[in-house]
Amino acid sequence: MTNRERNIQINFRVNEQERDLIYKKMHESDVKNLGAYLRKMAIDGQIFKLDNSPLREMNTNMSRFSSNLNQIAKRVNSTDTIYTEDIQEMKEMMVKIWQSQKYILSKLP
């Protein structure tokens, strides 16, 4: 045991419900090794698993908005005309972006 990086052992006892809860939280955090999970929790106290899919969706919507805005700007510069449909489309895209942002902010601690 002297050749191990971690040569000090710490033991503690739990009941069945506590064990099940520990394994459930370990599974939710995508940690496969119980020792690594318990060590991480004992040292840092918390493990966060972030879902970035709402951010990716918002980035996609913002990219579409930017592309559409550039296309509209080109058309306005060449024809000196802006269409009601263009303005409505931009408003709808902004609503999607704001909804994504509100969702993301509502999920933050």
TrEMBL record:
Q: Under which name does UniProt file this protein? A: Plasmid mobilization relaxosome protein MobC
Can you name the source organism?
A: Anaerosphaera multitolerans
